[in-house]
What we know:
- The chain has helices spanning about 45, 55-65, 80-90, 105-120, 140-145, 150, 170-175, 200-210, 265, 285-295, 300-320, 345-355, 375-390; strands at about 25, 30-35, 40, 95-100, 125-130, 160-165, 180-185, 190, 195, 215-220, 245, 260, 325-330, 335-340, 355, 360, 365-370.
- It is α/β, with parallel strands linked by helices.
- The chain folds into two domains: about 25-55 and about 300-390, Aspartate Aminotransferase, domain 1; about 70-295, Type I PLP-dependent aspartate aminotransferase-like (Major domain) (Aspartate Aminotransferase, domain 2, 3-Layer(aba) Sandwich), CATH 3.40.640.10.
- Strands 4-12-11-10-7-5-6 form a seven-stranded mixed sheet, with helices on both faces.
- The model has no long low-confidence stretch (mean pLDDT about 95).
- The structure holds pyridoxal-5'-phosphate.
- Pyridoxal-5'-phosphate binds near residues 46, 102 and 220.
Amino acid sequence: MTVSTEPVTDSLLGTYKRAPISFVDGEGVYLVDSEGRRYLDFVSGIAVNALGYGDAGLRQAMHAAADGLVHVSNLYATQPGQQLADTLVERSFADKVFFCNSGAEANEGAFKFARRWARTIGAAKHEIVALRGAFHGRLFGTLAATDRPSYRAPFRPLAPGISIVERDIEDVALALDPETAAALIVEPVQGEGGVRVLDAGFLRELRALTRERQVALIFDEIQCGLGRTGKLFAYEHFGVEPDLLTLAKPLAGGLPMGAILVSSPIATTIKPGDHGTTFGGGPFLASVANYVLARLSDPELLMHVEQTGAWFGKRLADMARRNDRIRTVRGIGFMWGVDVAGIASQVVQRALDAGMLVCSAGDYTVRLLPPLVASREELSAGLTILEDAF
Ligand SMILES: Cc1ncc(COP(=O)(O)O)c(C=O)c1O
């Protein structure tokens, strides 16, 4: 069966080229469409559905959350939000947490917090620097920090004071003027930019440089955080701690939630009124996120992702040796990119026809983001389909 990729023409705005498949159900690592066809899912709602589909505990957490308050606004405290912030602080470098609704919103907030802090050091400190290949979101601030010409061009002029430099310590050093720079934002593992695990030495150099120049180091772990690399936070692989860290995607099990983790020197410069958001950290979302965070922090799950992910990467590398259509394999944990000789979207389509969901990262990279609960058998089934699709 060939699945058409003709966009569906309906009342939804045409911002996505949606395949005309309508999913109605899911179980584990499989999605089921309205015709009853099962698809092995290595997209996971773009790194959101870490626990796969139909997880009994998640369902129960959502039911329990629905029995309580849904929303009261950030004018008042609620227990689930407090608990979630406490847990994130306990498990990370951070001292404070701000909740919001999406990844882009988390990064926009991190830019503001970094600037607020930087201005206490020098009146001219405002510039934000991002790296080649970065993806930080589609809102005005984050779009200026996203290195995808086709996303940027139609919306110029972009927000000022934000620039992109090469992933090279000398270029970054040139860009971070101690008088004017406020923040450097980095995905420790770049996602949309082709699944690139940044070098630990480079990250350490960035840490030293940002400290020396009094520039906030922001890690965007929206895609690579919360267990996807086999550690709760990707930075734990590199021995480098940021000043700010952003999270979203899997945090509330598919419900829209983001978070900004903030270290004390920055947190103490933030005052009431500096930032806000109506829905952020509401009790319903936070209750569900408390459950998800407990699951994603489970050492057994993390060990599974680390070890099974390494095994999966080796199998992909073996496949690359057998198949000259595969150029390079990169990744860590359950986050892999495969550069292909042709166009990635053709591989995505062939996999879809064979009953498997994968996505691309740029024109030439096929991106694999299986649910973190996928077993070796399920990953093997995916490799078999992929071998043909490549
Ligand atoms: C690393 C990274 N940052 C930011 C974002 C933006 O997140 P959202 O789509 O929730 O705004 C994404 C989304 O793919 C991402 O992968």
